[in-house]
Design goal:
The chain is 43% helix and 8% strand. It contains 14 helices and 10 strands. The strands form 4 sheets. The chain has a 3-stranded antiparallel beta sheet with strand order 1-3-2. Strands 7-8-9 form a 3-stranded antiparallel beta sheet, with no helix packed on it. Strands 4-5 form a two-stranded antiparallel sheet. The chain is elongated. It binds iron/sulfur cluster (SF4) (2 copies).
């Protein structure tokens, strides 16, 4: 997981997608994606405000890391996009430095070295906090992303908070991220075939963990600094020593593709993911309150002063609600929502706005009756 470190002051989320993805997804959806305004990256919504009283149950990120305690895979065409982009100054240096390490560097792109994965998965509560895990593309001086216009599917779709709660999560991370990841994997392989890698190199690559999107086992050579030079040379074949040029060539190839061509290269997996993304988008922008709702599991994180903080679909995105909400939830027992609202209003004298009920559904405090 990772989050964009600078999604600020843009009108629609297409504009916050990486350049290639904005074009493709614009064509797929045919309408702008509503912005995730609660993920205020410039002043990170997950960092403790200076004047905030400490609460032990609050979960804050480290301001000098934010959600970029993560190392993204960069498929060959995105790595090449950074290298060819004159606006990506600090990003270019960070990509070149990843190439120089040779760890996780193959003609498919920059994968996650096993050494990093071991550390990343070694503890609880590291994400957003451990400075030792900060992404090499994170620019410390400006606290934002050096490869913003070419970041990968995970970084492009990760938000700590969503305007429409669980519906947003289901669109971004449940639908769009797998679609983009499917395309990244397919296009990276397509580029390798177009580049005419020699057969021995193709054989070594197809046998490697990177071919199936994995990281492989940690080796002694990697712990001690770099992968085995012979194995590395076998993977690169005639492109050995010209890794950056290879990635730039991949970027050129992919930039020339239309959306239908991209989808065709992605095959049935991508087509299925595209259909699911379109459906998740339809739900994301549907303003209707679900016709029937039931209570869902929810945790009361804090109560007081007439308000409760409810944690439902994500610990990063609690819902603040009037304290009376808890008492109203059992009334939603699967009967028509309009009937339940009328009954509650008659019994309590309260005015229950359908928009508020919709929000309880969006955040998974109530769940639609299937
Ligand atoms: S944690 Fe949220 S607000 Fe902070 S940089 Fe990441 S997505 Fe943006
Ligand atoms: S690529 Fe950019 S958005 Fe992704 S983790 Fe690195 S700095 Fe953050």
């Amino acid at each position: 997981m990772a989050g964009p470190a600078g999604a600020i002051a843009l009108t629609e989320a297409f504009e916050t997608l990486p350049l290639l993805y904005a074009r493709w997804i614009g064509e797929l959806l045919g309408a702008g994606i509503p912005r995730e305004r609660k993920a205020t990256c410039g002043t990170c919504a997950m960092c403790r405000p200076a004047d905030a009283a400490p609460h032990t149950e609050d979960h804050y990120f480290e301001p000098s890391a934010k959600c970029c305690t993560y190392l993204p895979r960069l498929p060959n065409f995105l790595a090449g996009g950074v290298l060819a982009d004159p606006a990506a100054g600090p990003g270019q240096a960070s990509v070149l430095s990843r190439i120089e390490t040779r760890a996780g560097v193959t003609p498919l792109g920059l994968s996650i070295p096993a050494r990093y994965s071991v550390l990343y998965n070694a503890g609880d509560d590291l994400f957003g906090r451990a400075r030792g895990l900060i992404c090499p593309h994170f620019v410390a001086e400006t606290a934002d992303c050096g490869v913003w216009r070419h970041r990968n599917s995970v970084c492009a779709t990760w938000f700590c908070k969503h305007e429409r709660g669980r519906l947003g999560l289901r669109f971004w991370r449940g639908a769009l991220q797998p679609l983009l990841e499917t395309l990244e994997a397919a296009l990276a392989k397509w580029c390798v075939l177009e580049l005419d890698l020699d057969v021995a190199a193709l054989e070594a690559l197809a046998d490697s963990a990177a071919w199936d999107g994995g990281e492989g086992r940690l080796t002694a050579a990697e712990i001690d600094g770099a992968p085995d030079p012979k194995a590395y040379a076998r993977l690169w074949g005639r492109w050995l020593g010209r890794e950056a040029e290879c990635f730039e060539r991949c970027a050129e190839l992919v930039a020339g593709l239309s959306w239908p061509e991209v989808l065709a290269i992605g095959g049935p997996n991508a087509r299925a993911r595209a259909m699911l993304t379109a459906e998740a988008f339809r739900r994301l922008v549907d303003p209707a309150t679900p016709e029937r709702l039931r209570p869902a599991p929810v945790q009361v994180a804090r109560a007081g002063a007439g308000h409760v903080r409810l944690v439902s679909y994500s610990a990063y995105d609690p819902l603040e609600a009037p304290a009376v909400t808890l008492a109203l939830l059992p009334a939603f027992d699967g009967r028509p929502t309009a009937e339940v609202i009328a009954e509650v209003e008659a019994a309590t004298g309260l005015s229950v706005e359908p928009e508020f009920v919709r929000k309880l559904g969006d955040f998974g405090v109530l769940t639609p009756e299937e």
